[in-house]
Design a protein that fits this description.
Largest sheet: 7 strands, mixed
Order of helices and strands: EEHEEEEEEHEHEHEEHHEHHEEEEEEE
Radius of gyration: 20 Å
Bound molecules: fe (ii) ion
Strand content: 25-35%
Mean pLDDT: 90
Number of helices: 8
Number of strands: 20
Distance between the termini: 41 Å
CATH architecture of the largest domain: 4-Layer Sandwich
Structural class: alpha/beta
Low-confidence stretches: 1-9, 15-24
CATH superfamily of the largest domain: Metallo-dependent phosphatases
Helix content: 10-25%
Strand order of the largest sheet: 11-12-13-14-16-15-17
CATH topology of the largest domain: Purple Acid Phosphatase, chain A, domain 2
Length: 377
């Protein structure tokens, strides 16, 4: 390991023997950075395993399969930039860098956006803006792809996101369009059970939740606007109740955090007319937990626009403008503060006294900015 001097210390990490077996294969996705803490990081990449063809009456479908490789770096220093080389041969194909998270309260920047789906051109443009901002990490609030069961969609996702994910850790949550796909769980290396999880960065606590559940029927649900059927299923209610108890416990455990951000796909407040009632059912289920526990910002997606509402001191933000076709915001709610039908991302600068959130549209213009104060505990 050698050390370079820069504003932040830079270390070079090289994997030799452990990854030489993979060096004969061509990387098809990645490498990309996952699951970073103040002491560890994971680097993944995928290689093509093979291609299968199914045919019927002249109709043919090919499906490619990939091996996902994962390397875990441990014993790292907090708030330090590392360069990695998964093949150890100096080739740019296997190289990248990441910065470990701060171990204590220190300023940093992260980005959130969502519903990238099949809007590849718009997604690529937003990814280029985000790359220039060089955030510590990126959150995707779900619906990364149009159909999580289609490998073609993941190939497109990684083609668009590749430059970003090579150097910046990527934290997604499950959207309905992921369809509970095994590909999602194969490609991402996330903490805990990966369906819902948490992580820390400095004195910020991030709670990443799942609004979808493990056994959601397909394919009808994609078009379904009213999810009463979801709540009618006992197994879904049990799953969500278990998750709520876990979330409450985690929020109590991290009550000393300076900032708390909660992320999940389907919002608790919707300004899309056909979804407003559905959101109310979801909001009733959570029962004011996030306001009660002093969460400053809840980040969601699903509705393809920007919306911010404030309730009980908590900002409920819908950031679903990551690429997919935009929706009208045709049902403003009493708590609504701002609506913008625009593709966008949110840049969050976490500071010593407050966090500043800037909502940036696809052309780089500011839609709005607002601040939340550090929790006083
Ligand atoms: Fe969605």
């Amino acid at each position: 390991m050698s050390k370079c001097t820069a504003n932040a210390l830079t270390f070079i990490l090289v994997f030799l023997a452990a990854s030489m077996a993979a060096a004969d294969n061509t990387i098809t996705f990645g490498p990309y950075v996952q699951n970073v803490t103040d002491q560890r990081a994971v680097v993944c990449w995928a290689t093509l395993e093979g291609e299968s063809i199914a045919s019927k009456l002249g109709w043919k479908k090919s499906v490619r399969a990939y091996n996902v490789h994962e390397r875990i770096f441990v014993g790292l220093e907090p708030n330090t930039r590392y360069e990695y080389d998964v093949f150890g041969d100096g080739s740019p194909e296997g190289s990248g860098h990441f910065t470990t998270f701060p171990a204590k309260a220190e300023p940093f920047t992260f980005v959130a956006f969502g519903d990238t789906r099949s809007g590849h051109k718009e997604h690529a443009k937003l990814a280029a803006h985000i790359l220039k901002d060089n955030p510590l990490f990126v959150i995707n609030t779900g619906d990364l792809v149009s159909n999580g069961l289609e490998m073609n969609d993941w190939e497109s996702f990684f083609r668009v996101s590749g430059d970003l994910m090579r150097n910046i850790p990527y934290y997604p949550v499950l959207g309905n369009h992921e369809k509970d796909s095994p590909y999602y769980f194969d490609f991402f290396s996330l903490p805990g059970n990966e369906r819902y999880y948490s992580f820390l960065a400095g004195d910020c606590f991030f709670l990443m939740l799942d609004t979808e559940g493990p056994d959601y029927p397909t394919p009808e649900f994609v078009k379904k606007e009213n999810r009463e059927e979801f709540w009618a299923e006992q197994q879904n209610r049990d799953y969500m109740e278990q998750q709520k108890q876990w979330a409450d416990k985690m929020l109590r455990l991290h009550r000393d955090a300076g900032y708390i951000f909660v992320c999940f796909h389907q919002p608790l407040i919707s300004v899309k007319k056909s979804r407003a009632e559905d959101a109310k059912i979801r909001r009733a289920f959570w029962g004011g937990l996030f306001e009660r526990r002093g969460v400053q910002v809840v980040l969601s997606g699903h509705d393809h626009h920007y919306h911010r509402a404030v309730s009980g001191g908590t900002h409920f933000v819908t950031t679903g403008g990551g690429g997919a076709s935009l929706y009208d915001a045709d049902a403003p709610q009493p708590e609504t503060v701002k609506i913008a039908k625009a593709r966008h991302y949110i840049r969050i600068n976490v500071g010593e006294e407050q966090a500043n959130l800037s909502v940036i549209d696809i052309d780089g213009s500011l839609i709005e900015s607002f601040s939340v104060q550090k929790r006083s505990n």
